[in-house]
Structures are given as C-alpha cells and as structure tokens.
Amino acid sequence: MSTPILAIDGLSKHFGGHAALTEIDLSVEQGEFIALLGPSGCGKTTLLRCIAGFLTPEAGTVRLAGEDVTRLPPYRRPLNTVFQNYALFPHMSVLENVAYGPRRQGTPKGEATRRSTEALELVGLAGFGERLPAQLSGGQQQRVALARAIVNRPQLLLLDEPLSALDLKLRKKVQGELKQIQHRLGIAFLFVTHDQDEAMSMADRIVLMNRGRIEQIGRGQDIYARPASRFAADFIGDANLLQVERRGDGSLSLLDGAMLRPACDAPQGVLTGVLRPEDILIAPEPAADRLSLPAVLSEITHVGSHALVTLVAGSTVLTARLAPSALSGLAPGQPVFATIRLGDLSLVPGDA
Amino acid sequence: MVTHLVRIVSLAALAYLALPLVVLVGASLTTTSFLAFPPQGLTLAWYGKMLGDPSYVSAFMTSTLLAVAATIVAVVLAVPAAIAIARYRFPGRRLLSEILMSPLILPHVVLGAALLQYGSAIGLVRSFTALLVGHVVIIMPFVLRAVLPQLSDEQRSLEEASADLGAKPLTTFFLVTLPQIRSGLVSGAIFAFIASFINVELSIFNTTAELTTIPVKLFNYVQYTIDPTIAAVSGLTIIVAAIVIVLLDLTIGLDVLSERR
Amino acid sequence: MSGRLRTVLLLCALPAAFFVAFFLAPMAVVLIASLTTPDGHLTFAHYLRILADSYHWDVLWVTFRLGALTTLVSVLIGYPLAWYLVRVVRWRPWRRFCVILLIVPLFTSNIVRSFGWMVLLGRNGLVNDSLIGLGLIERPMRFLGTELGILIGLVYILLPFIVLAVGNALAKVDPALEHAAADLGATPAGTFWTITFPLSLPGLMSGAVMVFMLAVSAYVTPALLSGGRITVFSMLIFQQYSSVFDFNYGGALSITMLVLTLVLVTLAGRLSEPRRA
User: Fold this and answer.
1) What is the structure's pLDDT at B255?
2) Contact A75 C177 (CB under 8 A)
3) Has residue A140 been placed in a domain?
C-alpha cells in the first residue's frame, strides 16, 4: 500500500482547559473523498485548521505524503483550502485571486495567468477573470475559491463547509460538480460539513466526529447500517432507540420483556438497540418470520413519497416509515403489530 | 523581529503622546513661580489662583455655555437632515450632505475670517450669537457623521409598523427612531461639544476682552507670559478630558480597535 | 407636490437655511471680496499680488512642506502604532489604556497641547535637558522658532487621526483573507504587502488626507511654536483680518489656500481610489 497522502497520529488540541481534539488518528489515501462530519463544536474545523497549519496541536503528528508537517507554518505546507466564506481577496480581480498561489511560488506571470485561466475554465468561469469578487454571485464566488485552491494542484484539498452559504437547490448542483472535479483531478478532498446528506452523497468515507473525538470512520451506508455508537446511530439518519438488556444466559430482553434469543456477542447489561424506521412493518396479525410487537397506531403523517407512522408499544414510542400504499385500512387508535427482522436491529453500548 | 521594531516605535509614540500632558499636569503643581518640570514641591495653589480669578471663571462659563448651546442647536438641525439624507432619494441629496460635511475639512481660519467679514456686513460680530452660529457650522458634521450610519433601511419597516399602529410621525420619531440612533447621537454630541469647547481658530475672530472663551484666553495669554497658572488651566482641561473619556469608555465603549474575530 | 418631497423639505429646510446663511453666504462674501476693489469693482489684482510676491511663495512653500512632512512622519509613526494596538496588544486593559491615551489629546485644545511642547522644547525644557543628559548634544538645541519644533507639535496633534483611521481599517481586515494568503503559500511579509496593506490603504489615505488638510490649515500650533520666526499661510490670513483689515486681500489669500488644499486633496483621493466596478 502506498504512503497515505495524509496521516494523523494521536493528535490533541486544547483551548485553555477545554479539550477541542482528543487523540485523533486518521489516514487519507490518494484521491479519496473524505467528509468530516459532526455537529457544530465537535472539533471538525479545529482538526482542519491543525492540518492546514493555522493551529499547532499539543500532541500528535500530521504527515503529508510521509513528511512530518506538524510544526510547519501554513505557507510551507503543500495543501490548499477552500474557506467557509471563500475568503476571496476583495481588492483583486478573479484572475489575480486565482493566480495568487502560483505567483507566491515564483511562477512567472504569463505562466501563472495561463494556469489560472485553465483553472477558471475547469470550474466553468471562463471569461470572468477581470471581474471583482464582489461582482459575482455566491455560487460563482464559491467556484473562484475552488479554482484558486486547485490551481497549484495540491495533493490534498481541505474544504471548510464550502457549500453552507449556498441555497439548497444550488448546493445540490454544486455537490455534483465538485465530485466530478475531484474525480477528474484525482486530488484527495477533506470536506468539512455538518450536513449528513451532503456527506452521504459525496464522500467515499465519512469521519464522524463528536466532542473532539472520532466516533466512527466508514462508508456512509456502513455507518448507517451498522452504527458503532448511539451518537452515530442518532446523527446519521433517523433511528428508533430502544432499551435492550442482555441477560446472563445470552438472551436479550426488549420492550417490556419481549424475549429474543439471537446469536449475539454483545456485552452483558443494558444496551441500546437501533432500529431504522424503514425496517419496521405494520401488520394486523403477528408475522411468522419476524418478531412481532403489539402496539397501538397513534398517528400518521404524510410526507410526500412516504408516510411516518407513530406506534406506541407499552412505554416505547416507535416511528415507522411506510409507503402510502401500505397504509390502506389503517387508522389512528387501531391495535396493530409492529414487526421487525432481528438482523435489522443493531446493538450499541449505553442506555437508550 | 519586525514585531519587535513595531513594539519599540509604538511605545515611543505612546510616550510621545503622553509627554506634554504629563508635563503640564506636573508643572501645574510646582511651588515655584515659574514653570518647572519635574515640579519642585507640590501645591494646588495655582489651581486656587485660577479659580479665584474672575476672568478665568467667566471665560470658562462662556466656553461651557457656548458649547452646550451650539451642541443643542447642532443636534436639532443635524438629526432631521440626517433622516432626510439617509431615508429619502431627492434631487440635491448628495450636494446637501457634502455641504453639511464640508466644515470638517475647511480651514477654520478661513471660515472664521469669512464669518467675521460677513458678520460685520449684517451686524453680527463679537457677540455670543456670532460665536454660536460659527460653532454650530463647524460641529454639525460631527453629529451628522455619527448619526447617519445608524439610520438603516431596516428601521424604516419599524417606523411603518409604528405608523400602521396609529402613531403620528412625531410620536414615531420619539418612540421608534430616536431610540435606534441614540448611541450615535450621544457620541456625536459629545464630539461636537468637545470640538466647540476647544476651538481657537474660529472663536478668536469674534471674542473681545469681556467675551472670551477659555482656549482663546489661554492663546492670548501664552503669547506674552508663561506661568504656572496657565499650566493649572491646561491641567484642569486635561483632567476633565481624561475623566470624560474614561466615562465614555465605560458607558459606550471606546475599544474601537478590537479585531472583529 | 408629492408627500415625500414635502417631508424632505420639512426635514431639510432649517439645516439648509442655516448653512446657506452662515456658511455659504460668508464664503461667497469672501470670494466676492477677493475679486473686487474696496469700492466694488471687479479685479484680479489681489490674486496677482499673491502670485507676484515671492514672499507669499515662500510662505506657501513652508506651509505645504510642513504639511507634507507632518503627514509623512505621522504615517510612519502612526501605521506601526495602529498595527501594534490592533495586532500586537493582546491584553485588553492595556489596549484600552492606549486608546484613551490616543483620544485624550483629541479632547484637549490645540492650545493646551502646543503649550505643553512650548514648555518641553524650551532652552531649559525637558527635551534639551534629556538630550544633554544623554550626552547627545553639548549645548541646548533650538526647537522653538524652527520648522522642526512646529513639525513636532503638528505631528503630535495629528497623529491620533492616522492611528484611528488605520487602526479601524486594520481591525476590519478579515483574518480569513490572511489565512487564505498563507494557505496559498504567502510568507507573513508577503501576506502583509499583498493583502493586509492594500486593504488598509483606504483607511491610511483618508487619515493622511485629514492630517494634511489640518496641518496645512493649522494656525494655533505654528503660531505658538514659531516664536514669530516662521510664518505659515494661515497666519497671513489671520493678520489681514485681525490687524491689517484688508478684507479683499485677505479674501484672496483665503480662497488661494482653500483651492490649493482642495486640489491637492482631490488629487490624493484620485490616486488612492479603490478599484471599483
């Protein structure tokens, strides 16, 4: 296996007494698209700033293509950043903004202009070179920021919530373009976002962060299907969280005593069961091949392509996602059975 | 390295800024009959002498009265003008605002001379009113400059809401508009007051032996004699200025140079 | 008449009338006086007199040289000081104290501040005593009545304007822009010259223009620190109005000064105009 383009080892960063990052380990391969995902304040931007060189960690190392850059100032690091609000230089034209990087590296003016023009063409802004940033729309500014960051052909590009200032429709469009450009250039992208849909749809791998730690690293669908923690289950997708208890005999007790007997290597004690809404079906009778829980249908909410159904099973409230066609003949107040497949239940440590 | 140099230059510059003020306050405390710094002995006698001299007291009264009156007139004139300039598009708007702001850059000696010449034609010279109109002209830009940025377009909807709820225009002004511009008005009025209180160049044309302001009296005095009384008068103005600024800092905040991080 | 226009008139009538009566009319009177003889005939004689007299040229030259030097020195000291206050000082109480120190002089009369320098720069003043004490000079230097003395006084009075203008501009520079420059490979010095300095330039220029205007038109400071040995243009004007009583000639001097400063300031404004759409 080749040297990872980015290798982070045991990185910790404190602000005063507050631990912003604790023991971060992360490795990014050439050409990979990684999303750093987490709620605000989880440390993802701090991590990005440590990689870019705007912050110096107290412990741990940052290696870029094998070289230790932990103590190098930002201008000596071979990577570039797309900043959150683009940070375009307001007193320079679009072309001058893009040519800024090559010029600082000593590229002659003609060559820098040629390469910058190419970069602008790549992001679809050919002919905009003479304008000032203030004369561009938000989406166009975003592209200039991208062109400016890739013109030097870094091996790693950091993107700090680059789409957060765009409206939803434009964001969807730019997401696709960004992915294409990344594919074409073969640059590794480290993309900070708090939007799970964005992370899911764009990234090869998601690094899920919470409270300065990495909760889980993996492909989006894997984290969705097999969350490693209660936080991961709750943050990615919707989840029904059920209290589960593993008895001494290896059996699990779920929902006020319903007994299961799966082959399970979970630790003994109180656990949390994660059940995705689309894994719950509703039936008038218990289903033979599924675990069936008696419940009362309490509410139906239609949300376009599907409906959300609230079920009350004893003291637990479950939400199921069903196609509207599966709802015929059902009305609130009706006693039903919520049925699940045991294999769809993920167990994570901790109380629900 | 560079930061080091910046630090040295800055500390020297700060010392340079503090030096005359420290020296004046210090020299005003000397027991000698001539100005001495460091002061020889400490006494408040010169302050006593100043306060016992009716001509200083009356000049001080004139200055205060003039600055108060000029500030009031300037505010009354500047606020409506600011509202018109900020809220309405009308022919001559730019010209009006430029004319109202121009006393800021106009040499005060020129304006003082002009007012003297014009005043002698219309019989308005060497009187309190003659001083007043000149001061209003030069301090109005301070009020205007402080109030204008606080009149934003968002407030217009507040005013419309107030009108919609049945308030008359004047009621809307006092209940809705005025509270929005209060901090600008306060700081603008303070700068205006100070600008009037410390003016020499304009006042000097219209003062007489009986009607004079503190700065003009000082100016005329120091050209002939220098004694610790002058230092005491200066010291008093420095101390008053320092107190006013500290109060301002505590109330509206003067930390204008903080980075907006 | 539309309602809006009536409102505008209602709001502006009084301030506009006041400025017409006590600002524009007096200035017009000066302009007219400068172009007429005492008995009311049109003449350019007053201006020709200024142009023909080498003494006036000398005074103008001294005045504008002092103005330019004051501006230059204020910028050279003021920019680092502004940088120090905005970027170097991290301890807020100290910055607060510095800002107060910067503003106190603005709140005290020119006369008081210049008087302070009269005391400091005298033969036996603190400055000479210190210089002798340090062994830098043997006999007291002459400051009062020299251009150096006036320069020291003018820079002292006008320095806060530059510092406040530059400091404000520096405080508004978005740190993200400097980060972006560093990210693209600019060294700290490179970042300063390509990003921070250009972005603070409008503040610097407006401060410098203000300082130049005030230095050129200053009266009190040069009058007190010149000791009668040096004449600047505003002193000429004052003489005409207060002792010679030649209002026509004084008017011509006033207008000359006004036009010259406005021309220079407009030129400076043109040169420093930020790039625009």
Assistant:
1) 64
2) no
3) yes
pLDDT computed for residue A258 by the predictor: 59
Edge-to-edge strand list for the sheet holding A188-193: A80-82, A156-160, A188-193, A33-37, A205-210, A213-218
CB contact under 8 A, B245 and C107: yes
Mean pLDDT, rounded, for A104-123: 92
Q: What is the mean pLDDT of residues A179-208?
A: 91
Give pLDDT, residue C276: 47
**Top-confidence range, B33-47, B57-71, B196-210, C127-141:** B57-71
Kindly state whether residues A19 and A113 are assigned to the same domain: yes
Kindly identify which residue of chain C lies nearest to residue A150, measuring between CA atoms.
C184
Verify that A140 and A99 share a domain, yes or no.
yes
Angle between helical axes of C247-272 and B108-122 (0-180°, round to 10): 140
Q: Does B161 touch chain C (CB under 8 A)?
A: no
Asked whether residue A117 falls in the same domain as residue A248, the answer is: no
Provide ipTM, 2 decimals: 0.84
Q: Name the amino acid, one letter, at C96.
A: R
Q: Please name the chains neighbouring A, where neighbouring means 3+ C-beta pairs under 8 angstroms.
A: C
* Interchain touch A–B (≥3 Cβ pairs closer than 8 Å): no
Q: Which residue of C has its CA nearest to A82?
A: C180
Instruction: Calculate how close chain C gets to B258, using CA atoms only, in Å.
Output: 6
State how far residue C234 is from chain B, nearest Cα, in angstroms.
7
Residues A345 and A199 in one domain: no
Give the model confidence (pLDDT) of A140-188 as tens digits.
999 999 999 999 889 899 999 888 888 888 888 888 888 999 999 889 9
Interface of C with A (CB under 8 A): 174, 176-177, 179-188, 190-191, 194-195, 198-199, 274-275, 277
Among the listed ranges A8-17, A221-230, A243-252, B250-259, which one has the minimum average pLDDT value?
B250-259
Sheet containing A240-246: order of strands: A258-260, A252-254, A240-246, A269-275, A346-349
Q: Is the pLDDT of residue C277 over 70?
A: no
Closest to B241 (Cβ–Cβ): which among C21, C104, C223? C104
Q: Answer with the one of A210, A231, A252 that is the final residue of a domain.
A: A231
Domain membership of residue A1 (yes or no) is no
For chain A, the domain total comes to 2
Domains in chain B: ranges and CATH:
1-43+227-253 (no CATH), 56-222 (1.10.3720.10)
**C195 interaction partners in chain A (CB closer than 8 Å):** 89
Q: Is the pLDDT of residue A56 over 80?
A: yes
pLDDT digits (tens, 9 = 90+) for C185-217: 999 999 999 999 999 998 898 889 889 988 998
Q: What is the pLDDT of residues B187-203, one digit of tens each?
A: 888 889 988 988 888 89
For residues A109 and A17, membership in a common domain is answered with: yes
Regarding whether A257 and A120 lie in a shared domain, the answer is no
End residue of a domain, out of A176, A200, A231: A231
Is the torsion defined by CA of A13, A19, A20, A24 positive or negative? positive
Residues A16, A73 within the same domain: yes
Q: Answer whether residue A61 is part of any domain.
A: yes
Compare all CA atoms of chain C with the CA of A151 and give the residue at the minimum distance. Answer: C184
Give the gap in angstroms from C-alpha A336 to the nearest C-alpha of chain C: 57
We find that the CATH architecture of domain C54-272 is: Orthogonal Bundle (1.10)
Q: Which pair of tokens denotes residue A191?
A: 């993309």
> pLDDT tens digits, residue range B56-104?
889 989 999 999 999 999 999 999 999 888 888 888 888 998 899 888 8
Strands A213-218 and A205-210: antiparallel
Q: Contact, C131 vs C161, CB < 8 A? A: no
Q: Is the Cβ of A83 closer than 8 Å to some Cβ of chain C?
A: yes
What is the distance in angstroms between the Cα of A14 and the nearest Cα belonging to chain C?
Answer: 19
Structural domain boundaries enclosing A111: 6-231
**Which CATH number fits the domain that encloses residue A251?**
2.40.50.100
Question: C112, B237: Cβ pair inside 8 Å?
Answer: yes
For B234, the closest of C78, C112, C241 (CB atoms) is: C112
pLDDT value at residue B254: 67
**Burial (CB count <10 Å: 0-12, 13-18, 19+), residue C41:** exposed
User: For residues A72-102, b (16+ Cβ closer than 10 Å) or e, as one string?
Assistant: eebbebbbbbbbbbbbbbbbbbbbbbbbbbb
Q: What integer pLDDT is reported at residue B67 of this predicted model?
A: 94
In a shared domain, residues A249 and A210: no
Q: Which residue of C has its CA nearest to A153?
A: C184
**Please, which residues have CB within 8 angstroms of residue C151's CB and are 6 or more apart in sequence?**
C66, C69, C70, C73
